[in-house]
Specification:
By secondary structure, the protein is of the alpha+beta class. The glycine cleavage system catalyzes the degradation of glycine.
């Protein structure tokens, strides 16, 4: 997705000085100056370290909001496809903000608490998402509803990801993490600081996202880094990890013109929501679900030769243009090239042979099941 040039100064997270101290190389992302890689540890090193041990990612640029009021479920269910009324307290779910045309305005993780809904959404959509929430909340308030949207601007967000993440966090909290399954959230102390702990992430590995008071985030992060299994990692590794895990990047693999059916995200639409609707674009989305409609599908590709990058055209075996790559990398964990693409529905079946145009040449590819690397999410025994 093309992004308009901006002359506004880049924002910095509360961990900026810590990143500098660890030799970070920065890059602009969604208006923020974010660490890309660190001295002595390139993107490949960070990627593999996360898969084998654990890494800390600064994700403080993401939008955190809390939805309160007795009508909070009715309100948010107008905007997302999840069944929030049936989500258990402490449970989290991946959901989608949709628009009137059935497109995806953003993806988000929502956690149910006793008195509120905790919502995390993408940095690149932060201003748009907040305005969207506030606009619809105001409309419902005018009808007499009890709902309020509160931006959480006094907490920073870090992600601790990898198979050693539980052991690293256990040193700093009294919470029994063994009894905390993936996609749940709790409030508990970390290094003596009250934090929101969500067992979730964007890497396909076990891990946590910690919402920490901004005044304390540097000290808590430093405590996490005292564990020899834990290192800092930047945006470059985060992108390659999420692609191996088959997870979408908003603005690349999904956008406002993509429906949940086309994106392979029908599973995010709750069962009750499929029968009742009531969210923006429901007629379009539910119609596509019923008819298995839509002209295209998001697929995984494994390819030979030079790696395919976003924008590369996808061809059928006989040369017909059937789609476009949205993300692609040489996968560090696999030693082969992987990509996501949208292709015509008739070419989306697993093992379908295709070709990709890369640097003026065509390379062989095949439709592959995602995730490319099996997920390693924690389950309670």
């Amino acid at each position: 997705m093309a992004r308009a040039m901006s002359t506004a100064p880049l924002r910095r997270t509360a961990l900026y000085d810590l990143h500098v101290a660890h030799g970070a190389k920065f890059a602009p992302f969604a208006g923020w100056d974010m660490p890309l890689v660190y001295d002595g540890q390139g993107a490949l090193d960070s990627h593999l370290h996360t898969r084998r041990h654990a890494s800390v990612f600064d994700v403080s640029h993401m939008l955190q909001t809390r939805i309160v009021g007795r009508d909070r479920h009715r309100f948010l269910e107008r905007l997302v496809v999840a069944d929030l009324k049936e989500l258990p307290v402490g449970g989290s779910t991946l959901s989608l903000f949709t628009n009137e045309n059935g497109g995806i305005e953003d993806d988000t993780i929502i956690t149910q608490h006793q008195d509120s809904l905790y919502v995390v959404s993408n940095a690149g959509c932060a201003d748009k998402d907040l305005a969207h929430l506030q606009h619809h909340a105001a409309a419902l308030q005018r009808e007499g509803a009890d709902v309020d949207v509160r931006r959480i601007d006094d907490h920073s967000l870090v992600a601790l990801q990898g198979p050693a993440s539980q052991a690293a966090l256990e040193r700093l909290t009294g919470l029994d993490l063994r009894q905390m399954p993936f996609m749940t959230g709790r409030v508990a102390d970390v290094a003596g600081i009250p934090c929101h702990i969500a067992r979730s992430g964007y890497t396909g590995e076990d891990g946590f996202e910690l919402s920490i008071p901004t005044a304390e985030v540097a000290s808590v992060t430093a405590r996490l880094l005292e564990d020899p299994a834990v290192k800092l990692a930047g945006l470059a590794a985060r992108d390659s990890l999420r692609l191996e895990a088959g997870l979408c990047l908003y603005g690349s693999d999904i956008d406002a013109t993509t429906t949940p059916v086309e994106a392979g995200l029908v599973w995010t639409v709750g069962k009750r929501r499929r029968s009742e609707g009531g969210f923006l674009g429901a007629d379009v989305i539910l119609g596509q679900i019923a008819s298995k409609g839509g002209l295209r599908r998001r697929v995984g590709l494994v390819s030979e030769g030079a790696p395919a990058r976003a924008g590369a055209r996808v061809l059928s075996a006989d040369g017909e243009d059937v789609g476009v790559v949205t993300s692609g990398i040489p996968a560090p964990s696999l030693g082969k090239n992987v990509a996501m693409a949208y292709v015509k529905k008739s070419f989306s079946k697993k093992d379908t042979p295709l070709k990709i145009k890369v640097r003026g040449r065509t390379v062989d590819a095949v439709v592959a099941k995602m995730p490319f690397v099996p997920a390693n999410y924690h389950k309670v025994q």
